[in-house]
């Protein structure tokens, strides 16, 4: 089967996710990965709840296995993720740590330890993941902070013990985002720092994120640590779509909006289930029509990625065989359970043929 990374070698790296069990299974998953992909995101192993169960306790065993395997095989590491409301570590920002002083000190400890551990090995980092509300709710059209997820433990902790008005950019709960990027830059100056989120084709969410990236990059210009580079150098579009609601026009607009911020864009977690949200295909053989609908959607996406290739850092698919996907019931990937290529694979290989 033609290798995807070779098919895209003149455009951008092509990635996928790995779990430690993939290195040890009976399906030659690791070989399949090496054939098609040249950048790896650990699906779960590098999230705070996996790396740090308690303050001053860090366990890199699982993540290191994946990273060593990747780097030994010429596969780049995209590291995921440092600051997130989900799969986080409770000690960082809840309970006794649910205040600005403690949470920011714990963030420093966490980022220095974890980004420090992977210094020189991570090409790119998702520093902050999913800081914005699900679908752009709350956005007032001009202040990106109005669109933030206010129930994130990071936001709540930073809002506690606020000494100044939250109207100023110098001390408000959203500062946790800026702090995270400055800490990551100082810890691993060569890594390219990304902001990563989903539903970014929705105009309100898209615009709030673009404004945030520009605002924090502007704030960085007068920071004592300023090093001549952008602070947030990349925007990750997770790209978890739905077959029946997928709108390529909105994706095109989002790519254009993000590129205009001056940041690189990476497609960080793409998958495209067949049909509707509540479809339960669960490994059933797809009808010819379903296979084709999914393939055409993938073709539309990859045609756009080629169009913006100059600005794209990587395109990562969130899973290898359908049954391993977090949304397995929608059979959203390029390969079936036994890694036989679906029509979607051929559409990614040659999108032009499907449009
Ligand atoms: O680690 C525990 C294990 O100890 C326990 O025995 C087992 C029992 O269920 O659960 C394990 O945790 C699971 C974890 O994956 C690791 O395998 C969680 O239940 C499960 O919910 C978790 O799902 C992951 C999900 O993130 C969690 O939010 C998916 O595998 C992963 O694909 C998904 O990835 C996220 C990205 O990080 C961010 N963007 C959205 C994307 C999809 O949700």
UniProtKB/TrEMBL annotation:
State the superkingdom.
Answer: Bacteria
Family, per the entry? Belongs to the glycosyl hydrolase 10 (cellulase F) family.
What name is this protein filed under? Answer: Beta-xylanase
What is the species listed in this Swiss-Prot or TrEMBL entry? Pseudolactococcus hodotermopsidis
Q: Which residues form a coiled coil?
A: none
Q: Which residues form the GH10 domain?
A: 1-351
